[in-house]
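Tutorial, part two.
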Amino acid sequence: MISSKIIANGILRAIATLVLVLALLYFLFQIQNVLIYLIVSLILTLIGIPILDFLKKRLKFRHTIAAIFVLTFYVLIIFGFIMLFIPLIISQGQNLSLLNTAEIERNSLELIKQINTFLEQHHIDSSAIFDGKNFKSIFNFNLIPNFLNTVIGTISNFGMGLGSVLFITFFFLKDKSIFLIGAKLLIPDSHEEKILNSLNKINLLLSRYFIGLLLQLLIVFILYIIVLSIFGIPNIFVIAFLCAVLNIIPYIGPLIASILAAVLTMISNLGSDFQSEILPTTIYVLIGFWIVQVIDNNLSQPIIFSKSVSSHPLEIFLVILIAGFSFGILGMIIAVPLYTIIKVIVKEFFPDNKFIQLITKNI
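Running the prediction step on this input gives:
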């Protein structure tokens, strides 16, 4: 028969465990910025490891020099983006209607007026949808400065943390062997080989994935620039960059990018005739963006998702779909890397399971 003392001790242990878990969660919440820095540094490390190995094996660089070279490469890329966008925004800031709420409102109402005229010419009643008064009541344009301030604040915070990220990344690259030795000391001997094999495979697959993702974004960015330049859309670098970054979000991102490009195309052509200039140009830009997506979906993505992480396209689609329904956009972004990690781990620990053999046969 269980004594009251044993029951009391069990309750106390349960309460103590719960308190420790809550304290740990609170601590992690308080240092969430540090965790973000660590995650970003880990991603940069995974991208940089193949470059590091190339410099060491092919060019015979010493390990520390190679790590410094990779870090310098990252700094130059960041500096290049700053030099690309900051002067462009400064020189053309007054011309960007997106930065002036009064101008946005005037341009949007003018665009609605032209759309109404076009639809009335074709005997279509658009008053319920494209009514200027309703539009002004629905959209509060004063929210735009607040949104921009939030974006700028986020960029500023990231700028403050950039030094930390680069510092952490350097030591991840430079002392990766030390971290590996430390991990060995923490791993139980019975599982050491399996865990180390998993880490090596995860490192290889995720390095290939992130490098492939950067290559995909670069290809899409260049194609967007070509499309926008053909039709004379202003600020093509900014628009193409934003639309390319949206491609990180699977399936939904390209749709948002197309809508963004269409809206900016119409706004940039205000003052022209809607039927003969604005509408055709917008349609042509959308067709161009859709052609880019066809190229991306049939060339870039299959190479990245199928070869880099060794998964079937249908498998990846279902994983992204489930993650999207469960965790939203963030889930869609991290679905492929996380799924890859899980596949590698289960293959190492359950190699005899037939289902796991089926889904991990290419790993």
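Residues 216 and 300 are 6 Å apart (CA to CA). In part three we will examine how such features are distributed along the chain.
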